[in-house]
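Dataset card, provenance and construction

Sequences and ligand SMILES were collected as paired inputs. For each pair, a complete structure of the chain with the small molecule in place was predicted and serialized as structure tokens. The example below shows a pair involving magnesium ion. Curators did not alter the output after generation; any descriptive sentences attached to a record were derived from the structure itself.
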Amino acid sequence: MSAATLTRHEEIEPQRQLASVTKPLLVVLPFVVLLLAASLLPDWAVQVPKGWTIPFVDWANTVIEHLRDDAIFGLFSFRDLTRAIAEMITLPLAFVEGLLVAGFPNIGVAAMPWVMTAGLSGVLGWYLRDWRLGALAAGCVAYMAIFGKWELSMITLSVVLVAAPIAGLIGFGIGILAVKKQWFEALIVPFLNVLQSLPHFSYLIPIAVFIGVGHKAGAIATVIFAIPPMARLTILGLNGVAEEVREAGKMAGCTRFQTLWMVEIPSARQPLLVGVNQVIMQCLAMVVIASFVGARGLGHDLLFRLQALKIGQALESGVAIVLMAITLDQLSRAAAHKEPAHVSSDATLLQRFPFLAASVAVIAASLLLATATPIAQAWPSELTLSTAPFWDALVDWVTVTLYDPLQHLRNAMLLYVLIPVRDLFQSIPWIAMVALVAAAGWSLGGLRLALTVSGLVLFIAFAGYWERSLITAYMVAVAVLICIAIGLPIGIWASHSERRTGIAKLLCDTFQTFPSFIYLIPVIMLFKVGDVAAISAIIIYAMIPIVRYTIFGLRNVPSEIVEAGITSGCTRRQLLWNIRMPLAFPEIMLGINQTIMFALFMVIIAAFIGTKDIGQEIFRALTFNDAGKGLVLGLCVAFMGLTADQLITAWAAKRKQRLGLAS
Amino acid sequence: MTEAKIACRNLWKLYGSDPAGFLRRHGGNPSIDTIRAEGYVPAVRDVSFEVMPGEILVVMGLSGSGKSTLLRCLARLIEPTAGEVMFEGSDILAASERELIDLRRHKMGMVFQHFALLPHRTVLDNVAFPLQVRGTDRQKRELRAREVIELVGLKGREGYYPRELSGGQQQRVGIARSLAVGPDVWFLDEPFSALDPLIRREMQDEFLRLQRVLNKTIVFITHDFDEAIRVADRIAIMKDGVVEQLGTAEELITCPATPYVAEFTRNVSHDRLLSVRAFMAPASSRKPDAAAIQAQALLASVARQVLTSERPVDVVDDAGALVGTLSRDSLIDALYGKEEHA
Ligand SMILES: Nc1ncnc2c1ncn2[C@@H]1O[C@H](COP(=O)(O)OP(=O)(O)OP(=O)(O)O)[C@@H](O)[C@H]1O
Ligand SMILES: [Mg+2]
């Protein structure tokens, strides 16, 4: 069979070679022609005429106002309904908060002593992996107590502990329904795609309208934001259960419900727990950003200090958030990787239930300790340490010694890179952009893809924010190019040995757990505000996926192919450029795809430090509670991401298939 | 005559975009070339056979010939594209979901090619699973599970999880699980192929011993012809979804229906399989010799006597009447094939 395919390959080879040259040409040709002829084109073809704007924003606002004000359910409006639902979160939230930090004054019960929280976290870490994780978890909690972040961090933690299970359960339910009902999957998956590429702020605006502002609203925003990843991973996990295992369930005579409950869900335990990890991390990222609608906790503290430009103190809060992120991530990851193991039949009760036993011991010991010394109940404020002086000194030092070089770098970036690229982007006629995207879609996936992606771009054009979108596009483009220029070599370097890969992966994993908002702190410190600062923040954040995917792609080139290269006498360089790179390229493209997504997320958050793009408009919509505008702008951003995503995924799939790497 | 336990008639299973429509367009019997040309995968094509109560039918064939698919159609784990499957005389394809569940809970057991154990359950819980599903209380089902676990030689591993066991051990858990409910009909998809030769032999013996006691109706898939000969009442040889021949091992070897079957059976050691009857020459009716041999005796058991005898040895049937003679030359031909002349 392989001989037959080989000969057929050779026959079409000349044709394909011709096509491989002409096809990309055909794709960019209309774009180049239109770009060069921009001055000859009529005005309406260059700038989207004001009169052509389709009033999506007004429509959205009409719907939203109707939902907000009119009693569509007879007695009450949709907003009354959403507010009533939102009320339901107050009880669990108050309970967890009471347990961790506030206590229950009206029944005279104090909060858990901090040593108990630390001890229980330690036991959990130890049970899930080993004593080192236990030490990390306990140490993290102790840090919060000793360094004066106790209340803030426990409030943040309470939101995560309440929001994550709710979001997880809802996402899980959606996932199950999608797997069981085809029509629901067809309906929900595109919706999830859009939701997952909506920037954080777009979630906040409708929340502000329908629920209001405040801590509770922040918690609700957090729940909603974390649902899509869980739903997605549930679908993935359940679909990944081996057909034979499902059949084994059927042969045992399982009803549908038994199959789902006793066979499919437990077998998909690992991907589901990875979903839980995602939910927790998304919750933490969102609860930080939800401080914009009034969520309390560490995020609020950070926002407040950044607004006051107190960088040293902001860094102190940032460190607390980062510590919390790392600990939560490590714990939930350990839970996902923990495999059940047998216990010997003559084990004692203690060996059978180690977690329970240790927890009981910790609770008893810490209650005793708390009665013995008040320090164990609540860390006294006069003993609180602060790292702020250290950070302040660091910031001062940076400002004094690095001021000149940083200024030069900043000016040079602006003058020679950013401004020219921005001008170039702004001179692109909109029809040229549509032509480019449509042609690319057509060549990669035929008419269907061409229609999809040009539809997405036309939406952006006619929504009335074309110029702002171009600024966003330019910032993302510059940032992504720099990410590639830096991230690709790092990935190549890291893929050379097991040890380097390990280090790079650890760094990527760690950096990825940080809530995106954190990345604003160092760039504000270095560049204050403006485009250079924004682009730097995007670069740091969006570098992670390109490095990760490059390593993954290069390391997963089938070893026989590499060995074949070695035996034919390739040098290391030849091996890299002729064998490993081409084969890893589709994977690397998927990394670039992710980098674009990350960049789009970050560019919107960077509006906080004064950009002039779509993010700034969203930001303004948030302050004026303009939900319709916020939504439409959010869709513009999501559609930019989806356009890139659709094109790159189609390309990578095609390429993989041709290389015979399709899985 | 007793009724067949399982029967299938003109069973088809094709994979592709619209297999049912495709089959209809081609009058229900497309050729393999048409199937392939239109991009369909032929998994089972026009298969008909019956399995009698207490019979062991072995299905053999190369990888991808459709054995597992055929088995899944019989258990209705997948819907056939066309054809009929009868289980104890009733149409299983017309059974409701409830009836199917009942059937599987009480009458069918299956051992899967890739074990299909539940990763989150211990050996004990895996084996007890079918009992749990039908609502047996914990104590009873664990008692029963321990019984069958001991039967397959895994006593002491009850608390282990599947990933803590070797492939062979996992397969034995799969076997134990399928035995837990005591099914009438047992579907076995390469049950012993993950075992090492010694254990395999042991498990085959155990299997045959069990079968003598339990007398189940069995459809058994294997790659190994020697295994097939040991356990089978009849053997079906499949190729590209079609049953090329179905018969006893002896029939397959002595008169293969197609060159493929002949190729398949070529390397089998004939002496432990073939009986005298197939190779004897007819004899005129007379009183048999005192040293006559039985017609259904295996060649291996009479080889010494025939080879050391100067003249053909008399062959008698059960009643002791002469039915033929077996000469030294025909025995040698039977064992080593006819000499080929250039
Ligand atoms: N779900 C499916 N979709 C498409 N094709 C399938 C599917 N399941 C099986 N096939 C195809 O049907 C044919 C028969 O498969 P089957 O698993 O029955 O083979 P088998 O005889 O059991 O092989 P093996 O000895 O390797 O287990 C194969 O060509 C296989 O590729
Ligand atoms: Mg098979």
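Derived descriptions for this record:
The pocket of adenosine-5'-triphosphate (ligand 1) is lined by residues B 15, 41, 43, 61, 63-69, 113 (CB under 6 Å).
Chain A touches chain B through 26 residues (CB under 8 Å).
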